[in-house]
Amino acid sequence: MQYSAEYRSKLCTADEAVKVIKSGDWVDYGFFANQVVELDKALAKRKGELQNVNIRSAARVYGPPMAVLSDPQKESFIFNSGHFTLIDRRMHDYGLCYYVPILFRECPSYIKYAKGDVMMVAVAPMDEHGYFNFGLSNTFHKAISKIAKKIIVEVNHKMPRVPGGYGECIHISEVDMIVEADWNVSPIPEIPISEVDQKIARLILDELEDGSCIQLGIGGMPNALGKLIAQSDLKDLGAHTEMLCDAYLDMWEAGKLTGKRKNIDPEKMVFTFALGSQKLYDFVHNNPGVASYPVDYTNYPHIIAHNDKVMSINGALEVDLYGQVAAESAGTRQISGTGGQVDFVEGAYLSKGGKAFLCLPSTYTDKDGELHSRITPTLSPGTIVTTTRSTVMYIVTEYGLANMKSKSTWERAEALIELAHPKFREDLIKEATRMNIWTKTNKKPTTAQMVS
């Protein structure tokens, strides 16, 4: 069947397309690397014509939206993000972005409660069967399309075409308008690997086994771990993750990532979005060895647990002596988001032989050069708990790792203090004593440990 005539009938300029947006509408911009660019510029021109248009997106990668920059008073446009990058965070600091608390795995089901008037999303060019591929981000675009009153696709020939399990494309018959674009799909900058990242990665490497199924978050430590795995003797590892990053390329190129021992989607790298280098984007294009799925498949704990030996590795910002993990805010300042951390901590725990690691440097240095502990008696005021103390499994710093499961409060305090920087251990013991989570039988760090 030929779709060229239908394509031409729906083709229009970005300025024409955004005329369907009305005051009070909720407009989806696409998520991660699938956020629209030309349509955003066109909508910005309507500043002053419209009032109270809510824009919904997540994890900006193409800079602040032009619509937001055009309207700092938020009279026409209000921007809402389900996950913060540095760009979203800076906008939030200036009062130009609001966070949407989510459990990532639940997002497709939020259509039962969310308003969706216009969906705008960047896609790969239409194929001969009339399908536009969502490319680098499957997530929950298909779910949003079910509630959107109008669907506009921004077609970009530079968007990779990524094979999927399902939910990876939309048919022209479902689309109202088509806008053509020619912008570069932005790779994300390479994140440097620190000495602490290397130490933490080496600790986790010792916990991995042949046939492990790996989930990695973003950052220097996952990159370090990918490189260490590539140099290791491990074999037949699998990939089932929310984010496909360059660390998986390192493992694949070294022949470590075969997926042959996976119980579901064997020999496939499964993910819901990809962010990384241009090399990664070239790798996923038309690659039958990868499969993008909606997030309620990749991140649903009981689906994750179908694979054995799931190893979930994610980052954190602060941990208190009860084992509560903050991974998204520093005080009241939103830094990132819940993302899929909770999903994979639960899924890895349910997996036969699975382990979930939450990793953080033991300290940070403030702008005045003062050293602070990231392991604290209680979380800093206003800080959001991402993973509850009942859910947490392993906590990892450069000083070691400890499993929190089945531990009482005094056992947790002891284990976490051993993971803290030696400079802060005595003060943490004093606070644990004051909080009644320290006993006479607790082990105190030796003098050698305190000065190490």
Automatic annotation (TrEMBL):
Organism: Desulfoscipio geothermicus DSM 3669
GO CC annotation terms, alphabetical: cytoplasm
Catalytic activity: butanoate + acetyl-CoA = butanoyl-CoA + acetate
Residues that, per the record, bind CoA: G217, I218, G219, G220, M221, L317, G340
Taxonomic lineage from the root: Bacteria, Bacillati, Bacillota, Clostridia, Eubacteriales
Molecular-function GO terms, alphabetical: acetate CoA-transferase activity
Assigned EC number: 2.8.3.-
One Pfam family in the UniProt entry: AcetylCoA_hyd_C
Protein name listed in UniProt: Probable butyrate:acetyl-CoA coenzyme A-transferase
GO BP terms in the entry: acetate metabolic process; acetyl-CoA metabolic process; butyrate metabolic process
